[in-house]
Design goal:
Order of helices and strands: HEEEHEE
Helix content: 25-40%
Mean pLDDT: 83
Oligomer: single chain
Structural class: alpha+beta
Number of helices: 2
Radius of gyration: 20 Å
Strand content: over 45%
Low-confidence stretches: 5-24
Largest sheet: 5 strands, mixed, barrel
Distance between the termini: 61 Å
Strand order of the largest sheet: 1-2-3-5-4
Number of strands: 5
């Protein structure tokens, strides 16, 4: 009976920690780079960029996500992008919410 109580206490504490972590504010990712290429898709496009240190990253720019702020970048544009990120094929992909 005592071990059941310990397990229940542990699980309760663990679920509290998980809930606090999931409610924590996420920090928006920001990166600056020069557009190397643009590949158009269904509702937007993917731009490949390089930063000043020659690190490559992709920007997924969607009409749906950006709505009225959507704009098309061109090769050679130097921009600052911000949004959430995903990591795919050992490359950072920014799910762009803002373009500066």
């Amino acid at each position: 009976m005592k071990s059941k109580h310990l397990v229940m206490t542990f699980l309760g504490s663990l679920s509290g920690v998980i809930m606090m972590d999931s409610c924590a504010a996420t920090k928006e990712y920001s990166a600056t780079g020069t557009v190397q290429s643009v590949e158009f898709g269904k509702d937007g496009y993917t731009a490949s960029l390089k930063d000043k240190e020659n690190n490559e990253f992709d920007a997924l720019i969607s009409v749906v996500r950006m709505q009225k702020d959507y704009r098309v970048l061109k090769v050679g544009d130097n921009v600052e992008l911000s949004g959430d990120t995903i990591h795919l094929d050992n490359k950072i992909r920014v799910l762009v919410q803002k373009i500066k």
